[in-house]
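Two folds, back to back.
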Amino acid sequence: MIEILHPGWLSLIVDEGRYGYADSGVPSSSALDALAYRMLNILLKNPSGTPAIEVMGHGFSLRIDTDVTCAITGARVETALNGEPLEPWTSFYAQKGSILKVKTILEGFRYYVGFSGRMDAEWVINSFSTNLECRFGGFKGRPFVKGDRVRITGPRMEKPDTIHEKNIPRMKPPHVLRFVEGPEMEYFSRESLRRLFEKKAFSWYNVFSKSNRTGIRLEGEPLAFKEGVEKSIISEGILPGTIQIPGDGLPIIMLHERTIGGYARLGVVIRADRDLLAHLKPGDKVTLEMVEPKEAEQLWDKKAQLYDTHTKTLQEVVQ
């Protein structure tokens, strides 16, 4: 059993998400940083898909009422167990009655807390993930609040492990997001696109405070539509990472809580950079860089190799 002492800014249960239901309007609601989530379960020797807690903001704390191995991945955080500091992206023993507290975030924005064992969560449409808008899955379909208690089924004490420092992704701003061209890129003026891709101060955007798990709003130099072009489209399916441009010309990067959109699509953030979207916080500087599909595939292959290497290494440790 664990008890939430402080939920941080927002904490909820996530997993790999629910896929195959977008045609019915059901989004994935998956962990925003897929690599961090997967590495968490590798460190804990859990099966893939084991639910974890995704936390946004500092101050998160909980009491652990069983002997179990824990880990935290994602954002680099200053964390302590019973007052003793912990290393990032490392699993550790926690004895019954231990207090885990995240003091502050050093780099990044969202982090993942997990245990060797499975938190009892609602299994809805083939996933434990919390759908906040429809209020199902996770813990009663809602974020955690102080005093919530969650049972852990099959808690285990696994040998502590770690992800090497050099393999922890960089999450410090300014951020460069690479994307492939979207179907409505020709809606925008040539001059506007030229300014977007120049490596100058005004080509940077700032993350707006009104950003959440649905999407990230950017502030800065608006993109100008060509004269006579409609500033909206007939709603169509969208992918996580889709960069939509509403009538005001300021980008919105869609995350994991929508399946359709009605704004012009400048592009889609490449898969290799998509985990970084979990760590864009209000005020961060962001620039957009277009790449060809072939380069996007190569960048993803490189990142996938890192994950596969750790999977093999840690499986060998278990054996």
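---
second:
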Amino acid sequence: MNDAQASVQPSPLGATVQASPAHRSVARELFAFARRNPLSAAGGLVALFIVFVALAAPLIAPREPLKADFRRMSKPPDAQSFFGTDQVGRDTLSRVIYGARTSLFVAFSAVLLGTTVGSLWGVACGYLGGRFDLMSQRVMEILQAFPDLILAMAISMAIGTGLPAVIVAIAITRIPFGGRVIRSVALSVREMPYVEAARASGASATRIMTLHVLPQCVAPYLVLATTHLGVAIVIEAALGFLGVGIPPPTPTWGNMLADAITALIPQWWLVLFPGAAITVTVLAFNLLGDGIRDTLDPKLSPAVLRLVTGAGRSGPARAGQPREVAAS
């Protein structure tokens, strides 16, 4: 390798220095988000903590969640079992921790599947229009005519109980919401001049939707995915409580509440701690979703929207200089 070729290759130090402004930009936006929405930042920290607890459940849980101890049946909280034990002596704290893993996995999987399918469906409806859009909207209206819990219960009972069935049932209830919101975005984006220019240049509908319409749907997609996590957690807990969710003995928060009411007099700790876990988790994700919605609103924070969608990365124009010249 000669000296000319060696001088062209960037050094690792230079690459690190070049990437640092992006890291500083992300850190600056996160700090601004926390300062502008302290409640949402607190909800995000609580949500991250709950996710960490769910991932580290085998390391954090004091006991096995399915191990019964018949010498300590229905014991109240004490120094040996901080959250008490259930009717067969299983540690409630361990079951709450492992229940977070199951409930969050179901919620994340269902929201990701349902919102993604609904968003892609909404992009196609908004851009293509015509009879396809008309028929799709009628199907979405039929899905939205049923309450979320009733629809999820009917689907779960029809396809059978179990983890995949619960994920699919909850995901179907999220499809029409994502489809409606993303369709409205696609309807406005397809009238933009750059979309018309791409259409006039002979680009196919698939290429236009992929390269020009989908990037503008990133911000509403993030808002939808975050705000629907709390709803998915509540639906999963309700399905488990009604007996059409994930079957026992898999620990979930809904199953724990269902087990608590089987006793003649339910013990207070068997109801309090799973219910508190559901309440705190749903509240944390709802607060985080509200903050992300406000931050990604282009009227409130266009800088973050440009950071997420990748648009408008050019710096501001200097005084007395046109914007096109400054961008070049």
